[in-house]
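Take a look at the protein record below and flag anything odd:
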Amino acid sequence: MRAGLLNRLVHLQQISSIVDSDGFTGETWTDLATVWAQINPIGATERFEAAQTQEKITHQATIRWRGDVTPKMRFLYVFPGTTQRIFLIHSILDPNEDHTEYNCLCEEYVVSQVGAA
């Protein structure tokens, strides 16, 4: 894998349980690591539901191999000076089975108001 292709700095996040001041349990995303990734779109669908356009965009994120990545994690990518993008990891492939890289099949779920620019 060529290092120059990994051109997006992303936060690898995992879900963590938290207890608030009232003793209620909840969940939050916490950073596990910051890694370099190559993110490529590989498909998209769009539907109209509840007066909102919902897009389901599928991506492949390639990262260096790590032994702790699971399909219950996500990538958080922050565009410099703009918004955040979240990629939920659905499956993980070790393409050459040599523990050098992972191809993570992800879903980006974007919800926008109808008529929003």
